[in-house]
Design a protein that fits this description.
mainly alpha; about 65% helix; about 300 residues
Amino acid sequence: MNAMPPATALERSAVSGKHVPTPADLAITVRDRRFGRETPPGRWWLADDPVATAWHNSLSATFPRGEAFFIEAVKAHRDGVPPRLDAEIRAFIRQEINHTREHVAFNRAAESAGYDIARIDRRVEELLALTKDRPVILNLAATMALEHFTAMIAHEFLANPAHFAGADPEAAAMWRWHAIEEIEHKGVAYDTWLHATREWSRFKRWKVKALMMLIVSKNFITHRIEDTLDLLQQDGLAGARWKWRLAKYLLGKPGVLRRIFPAWLSYFKPGFHPWQHDDRALIGKADSAFADAVHTA
């Protein structure tokens, strides 16, 4: 594992000319881990629940192309950033590359279990193709919004054990590992945005990020629900009953969309920053659980 040294106050304030609330002692650690190679997860790997399995499979199917997009969007704006932020971007990229590798392996296991994941991948490819000709700053704004989504979901996954109760152990470990690192680098795209838009007015910066979050939220939720229903249909599970069961899963229990709603709303506050909510305690707890598992294996 590789960890970054803590930032100085000068480096933190240099990002936008103002104080940025990324913790000065934050260390972004690259944990190069592999999961499920010897015993890939089965078809309904999450508590034998087709709905929970389909939701997470639909998320995973988007990650390889999505995370490549995140990397390119941040890299496009790294010129001239302070040294500390440059180091954070490098660690962010290495983490995202590892996440891509593990989700490629996870998606292959889902395909081996009988699911057509390629249809979701093609949809993501088509949507990303639409971003090629727009200003690159909008791609960074979209990345920032999606990174907030992944950080919110990551927090929920680590804070609420119900999400992976009864899951295949290796699959659950992969999702928790991914969640740890999403929380850890949740401010990188945002700090890059602050640097890239440092000449903008506060209102312009807020307007663009807020409008982009609304667009991203609509697309993210709509497409993930469509993809989940597609995967359920591949199991022969279609119709109003299964739509209702998916709604209960997302909004009832365990209710990931319901539970992240307050954090989603906070994104629209003037002066918002991802690290205004310091949830690194979840990282420490989850990391120690990994260490205990290795020690007792």
